[in-house]
Design goal:
This protein has 123 residues and is of the alpha+beta class. 24% of the residues lie in helices and 33% in strands.
């Protein structure tokens, strides 16, 4: 009986099936790039806390040009809540612009603060 349930869920031996598409599982992904006074104001750590509270996967990082970039994956309403928070940021941030891009989910697990990439200009 447990085997039938596992097959119905697309898993065998407790392992997920290779055909589990995040889209079919109701997962969305949004990448945001945030402009303004967003570095040196605990933006990344607060973003990580918000994402964990919302049970989202993804990452956040500073960009060399002073912006912050983040990716959120999870249930659509939870991703939307995180993007809404991004538009305000933590108390000492001054968000002036947010560009949001819907992307294909990658099936990320956990939420991390990533290091700043090494490049010299705006994308």
């Amino acid at each position: 009986m447990a085997e039938a349930a596992a097959e119905a869920e697309g898993a065998t031996d407790g392992q997920p099936s290779g055909d589990l598409d995040p889209y079919r599982l109701g997962v969305t992904r949004t990448r945001v790039v945030v402009d303004g006074l967003v570095q040196g104001v605990f933006f990344r750590d607060t973003c990580r806390r918000v994402a964990v509270e919302q049970r989202l996967a993804g990452w956040v990082r500073n960009l060399p040009d002073g912006r912050v970039e983040a990716v959120f994956e999870g249930e659509p309403d939870r991703v939307a809540a995180a993007v809404d928070w991004i538009r305000r940021g933590p108390p000492h941030a001054e968000v002036t612009d947010v560009a949001a891009y819907d992307e294909r989910p990658e099936g990320l697990a956990g939420f991390e603060i990533r290091p700043t990439p090494r490049w010299g200009g705006r994308t």
